[in-house]
Amino acid sequence: CKALTVGFFQLFRFATWKEVLMMVVGGVCSLVHGAASPLMLLVYGMMTNTFVDYELEVQELADPNKTCINNTITWLDGTVAERPDNSTTYCGVDIEAEMTKFALYYVGIGVGVLILSYFQIALWVSAAARQIQRIRKMYFRKIMRMEIGWFDCNSIGELNTRISDDINKINNAIADQVSIFIERISTFIFGFMVGFIGGWKLTLVVIAVSPLIGLAAGLMAMSVARLTGRELKAYAKAGAVADEVLSSLRTVAAFGGEHKEAERYDRNLVEAQAWGIKKGAIIGVFQGYLWCIIFLCYALAFWYGSKLVIETKELTPGGLVQVFFGVLMGAMNLGQASPCLEAFASGRAAAKSIFDTIDREPEIDCFSEEGHTLDKVKGDIEFHNVHFNYPSRPEVKILDDLNVVVKAGETTAFVGPSGSGKSTTIQLIQRFYDPKEGMVTLDGHDIRSLNIQWLRSLIGIVEQEPVLFATTIAENIRYGRPGVTMEEIIEAAKQANAYNFIMDLPQKFDTLVGEGGGQMSGGQKQRIAIARALVRNPRILLLDMATSALDNESEAIVQEALDKARQGRTTISIAHRLSTIRNADVLVGFEHGRAVERGTHSQLLDRKGVYFTLVTLQNQGKDTDRVLECSLFKLKCLSYRRSLRQRTHSQMSNNIPDAISGKFEIHSDQFEIEEEETNNTEVIEAAPVARILKYNRPEWPYMLLGSLGAAINGSVNPIYALLFSEILGTFSIQDLDEQRRQINGICILFVSIGVMSFFSQFLQGYSFAKSGELLTRRLRKVGFQAMLKQEIGWFDNPFNSPGALTTRLATDASMVQGATGSQIGMIVNSLTNIGASFIIAYYFSWKLSLVVTCFLPLIGLSGVFQAKMLTGFANEDKNALEAAGQVSSEALSNIRTIAGLAKEKHFVSQYEEQLQTPYKGAKKKAHVYGICFAFAQCVIFMAFAASFRYGGYLVSNEGLPYMMVFRVISALVTSATALGRASSFTPDYAKAKIAAAQLFKLLDRVPKISMSNTEGQSWDDFKGQIEFKGCRFTYPSRPDIQVLRGLEVSVHPGQTLAFVGSSGCGKSTSVQLLERFYDPDEGQVLIDGRPSVSISVPFLRSQIGIVSQEPVLFDCSIAENIQYGDNSRTVSMKEIVEAAKKAYLHDFVMTLPDKYETQVGAQGSQLSRGQKQRIAIARAIVRNPKILLLDEATSALDTESEKVVQAALDEARQGRTCIVIAHRLSTIQTADIIAVMSQGVVIEKGTHEELMARKAAYYKLVTTGAPIS
After folding, report:
1. CB within 10 Å: which end of the chain, N or C, has fewer?
2. For 426-460, how does the pLDDT look when each residue is reduced to its tens digit (9 = 90+)?
3. Closest-CA residue to 426 (of 243, 284, 570)
4. What is the H or E stretch that residue 633 is in?
5. Residue 1100's closest CA among 1173, 1036, 1189?
């Protein structure tokens, strides 16, 4: 275990002696600060004694025959008045003078605390800020020095989070937390010391019961964790249902199963709800137990303590107070010290990876000054028997005994299939990696012996996907070489054919290229990169597929620039497109990590080796080559937004008029999409609470009960203050029996309050849990229904992917609880607490109450401050570090380019510059934080000083019983601290409101295609005549591609229409329009002569049965899957068997052990494809539709199953309007109409015979026998 984390003191290894001194002084301050509260108790105890003495004196002197002589109570005749137990009574207490003295003590302690706690925090925080600054700088500098192989093994994202989060964790572990920990531990120690000094017997009794409290807290934490796990597991079932339904939404919609699915989801929520309620109840029980134990402890302590005071006189009343509170305070602080340990642990874990990196020595150190430089470089590069594999994939051998010679001043082209090691050789020349065996030499010197920075300065590289930095064009070119003049930049731009397009831009060379060069087209980026390479005036030029990502137009321009650039330099060019390398001086053919052939273009063609195969392949598929490369390139741009950009750019560069006019539309679309996406994540107004409560209305009885419990719990604190002062009051009663009777009575009251609070805590916990869980379940159900109501296009937005939606159901709904039940409980609790305290205080002494009330806002504020301190600073830090984070993430993502340009130092200094502001802020914050903390700590002492001093005045001048002073002060002070604590519970509340807002946004969204039964028309004699009239359509998620461009085709009832055509021509889209998953952008789909837009969606879908290529089955039995065909009624077993027979499924089902009750598994995984397909057909038949849609229903089957399934389909088609989409032409020859589609329009239609006679597109397809894909 030791090896896994860093030792705690190891965290401070970067501290200078100055910081160590700061931390030591700060530590001493917090140690002394910790002693302040126990010290206050000593004063408190002395004060209590003074009050009790004064009260006794007042009672004695109430007898007119007694007077006070020489501080002893005497009779008027001068004899000393003796009490029943022969002791004399002390008198002549000058209560006001005494009180002034105590008040000064309090003020003194307060001022001490103010100064100490300021230093304690300010010193620790600023020392930590300095160390963290140093760690950040060292860490980033060390990362930038690492060799490229290290980056292959560490993901960039991880490094970025380490720079931000992990270092923040270290910060938390070495800053104020340490000082607060020291302070709390010292309070714990001194508290117990005060207790033992005051009276060891009572202290031991109190300590003996305290484990019960600890036990309760521990048990509660454990059981809550266990129950939360159970609850999540139970919800996981419902989550799985939601996921299954949302993933196969089209099927659900097509068969109208929305209502059924919502019910199924709701059934699964019941269990999760039950566990949630259990959790609430158990928390309630433990909370109640905790309070109950605390009050029982009070009862025990006061009962035993008063025995010691009255009977054995071992304790003074003040001593009793001092002991009891000393132990209590000690125990409390020990408990509060534990969260700090958590911060220390996570800091140590986080430091592990960071310190490891800081200690690691890079294998290839780019900052090192070692290695020699050559005076004159010719530029001969040779590989001698090089073996190499990437450190991240040691099992794959990339270069296997490679020998290559590249002569100075020649252009050498490397060709070969991908993965043969061409790009790797380039990385070895740049010395991103060192070969495992063999060596790479430059002019006969092993490049490992040369200085890295100097070596890289000789090399210019242009990559396939050039990386530009987020700054201006001029700056990007300037990265090529330090100290470049503007003339040289312009010259390089001209050589790279970039000058003209740069001068056309409004800001010319000062144009910003955007994040990753995103504002530039591919060709423009490539030319800027070439200019950057040329400005270095390199001896060696490396071109790694420099033109492969460009369209024809740009390619020609860039190629021309490269040809210019190659003059007189050693050039290595890698390309897939042979046109680009024919004119190289030497071609080297690669295969499996070896150079297998070398020569000119014509020599290699004669050899009939690797090069020959590549050339013949390319010439054969002259066109396919382009297509292949394009499609590969498109794959690279995974997210459609990026691909969108790419497309718009390639269009920009082919200046065809219509592309330009199209370009603007596309741009606006693109921006709309982006804006929508950002809106979804950023701006969400918090939801009004009233609306959340509306959803919780049915649970009002529970809410009422919970509020009742909360009210009782709130009044516990003030009642405690009442009883506590009563106890102090009993000590001044003369009559011993009366005194004992009162004390016993009070202790019994304590016990009964304990028992009562047990029940009320349980009531509050259980009721609010119940109402909260019911609300969560209701919101989940409503949210799920709302999702199912949305039109299909809504789900195409990546923001609404099934995964995202299921998490939204899981988390948002359960977070909303935080805004109703528990929050109401919190408010009621605080209100009754404050209300009761004020009533008690003002009832017994309004003057004193006023004085104390003046301090209340300050005490409350100090509570709020402390809560804010801990959360607020974390956020500020995050924002301040954003800028530095951008530098670091840009640097890490483009590390190869930076290394190639030898610009690491530049980025390190840029990063350190960005750290300056947050660092200054952190140092300033240390003082602000210190002042706030100090203020919060000392307020309570000042409050005590003022109130007790004034209390003393009232006791002596206005005859206020002293117990009232204690009553008022403790009532108000406890309520104020409770208030402060309540205010720190608000973060859940804010989160809950935002979560609710997200849910309501979903509930309020009006779907573009309404699913309700009432809207739209329906009619009885549905015939099934379908007509597509001039339909144009684009998918909302891909606005730049029009799928249907004016589809015209019609089918009469009972006819079969077949669509054929290459993939992407819009066949399946037309089916989706018919199902009304989408509505056409222009044109109409007419059904029985009525436009589909006006027809009720459930009615329309109830007339359509669909069998798709990959049928979606649900995770239930075969019978249930077939029943799914008609969700408007319960399908009888007879009908199921009937349908199964028609689908040629019955015989197969009868061979299964469970027959129709066989479970099909998730997504039907237990069955073969043919079986799944036949279940889907049976499902469509049960529906008894008028229109049957077969979307490539047999394409995924083998010949055997296909025959059976085809027969089943032919049976199903009888007497229905049918639309078939097929790839295999054999399956559709019997169709009444065959429509051949291409690019979203029908190019010819007719029967099989007619089309064959026309000898056009269809004829070609049939005669070549090609499947149309």
Report:
1. N
2. 888 888 888 888 888 888 888 888 888 888 888 88
3. 570
4. helix 622-636
5. 1189
